[in-house]
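explain this:

___
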Amino acid sequence: MATKGIVKGVVGNLVTIEADGPVSQNEICYITVAGVDLMSEVIKVQGKNAYAQVFESTRGMRIGDEVRFEGHMLEVTLGPGMLSKNYDGLQNDLDKMEGVFLSRGTYTYPLDEGKQWGFTSLAQPGDRVQAGSWLGEVTENFQSIKVMVPFTFEGLYTVKSIAAAGDYTVKETIAVLTDEAGQEHQVTMEQKWPVKRPISCYAEKPRPHKLLETGVRMIDTMNPIVEGGTGFIPGPFGTGKTVLQHAISKQAEADIVIIAACGERANEVVEVFKEFPELKDPNTGRPLMERTIIIANTSNMPVAAREASVYTAMTIAEYYRSMGLKVLLMADSTSRWAQALREMSNRLEELPGPDAFPMDLSAIVANFYARAGFVHLNNGATGSVTFIGTVSPAGGNLKEPVTENTKKVARCFYALEQERADRKRYPAVNPIDSYSKYLEYPEFQDYMAERIGSGWIAKVGEMKQRLIQGKEISEQINILGDDGVPLDYHITFWKSELIDFVICQQDAFDEIDANCSLERQEYMVDKVMQICRTDFAFEDFVQVGEHFKDLINALKQMSYSVFRSEDFARHEARADELVAQRAKN
């Protein structure tokens, strides 16, 4: 018999419920307010009382209102028909909603129940299968979507029968499986899974090492991220987080892109809805939205839904990973998610940590980031979830708790800096403070040595060292003046500026420079490092500055030219000529 209860107290979105039976942590319940059922999640159980966070406004809720417990955790519905969809944090299809504003207590089915999908079987009667095994496939937006044994199934099963090739809805039975006890189980194209539990239907989860190409030099060359890797982008307002996210989403080598707008301002989420359908996939020329899912929870929605949105997005990403696909998950911004955690923790009167965030914030962030990764599936295929979150620290303070705790678990750190943005040096990622721990992995070093050459990692290290030297000399010049430092210092400083302007900076709005292939990145790095290792002869610091400005301009023009074209060769010849003019014999 289902457990019921009554409301005993209401504080914002936190409701105290007296239950008349067993209740479990993270169980879903519905509170009836004026005839409308409001979805809630149990976040704490103490004696007879259950504390639930409500995913809707609690206005009008009264003590004595009835509560119905569902006996399961917050779940998402997985199946064909999710691509190109706009969901909220509870996986309601926003396109099915009526009116300008979301009505309280209105929930929609996330898939299209009436649509028929062209099913082709991959398994045969008599095959032995387990959770996550591929039974068949359908095509959605030119993407092969696998129909799998539900993740909730335990142990081994035998395929008794499988549907013939044809058109079926997500609700129709496409296979009958027999378990070890001889009991039959019908399988459809859809399945449900609780969002707070990772999907772990794979054989192995090794340390990731394959470069995920994004076409952004500051990432691919300076601070690479890998398939199944984790990274985060902190930065104050106006430093270019959104443009960088667009560039990564559009250009990264991913089969599926999932955007989780968790707690962003409503106007920024509207921009995502407006701009993403207009973006073109550079690989296929088709709309990027065809392989994108957007999960939106704005900052004026209830805080509880903000927390749910990141888990919903990660669960959907894990579902596609189980198909052997490469998934890129972008969350903007995890700061708002952490603020939601802080708000609920404060209402529960828990012991506060730094800046009033929960004491276990680091564990929550670590557990979530750990769900990303590269996996070997049980059938030998591979899949990955690459997670990049953005953090919006108050006042651009990178020492606040969310940034610090994320830094401990994310392998890549892309520090957006207000000063670089003010100087129009985009992407405004600080090349010195930012890092990628994947550069230290022996597996990644071996992969890059095979892909590009054995000296690549050393070149990246040398470039970073030259940028640090340039910054130190810049500070000395600011204090002592141009005349107060040796001429060699000016040459070293301008060599670091050469790396900054030609390698680190990139024009996201130029058709050619926006997406830089790895082959081109290697060529330009070799070119720049060759110049940096050249000894030059100058008479004074003015001559140094003028000469290097001309050289930077010639190399920048190469970036705006089609790789190995006539224009590219012409600008390269000009750069070589400038180097020869001042090079020591």
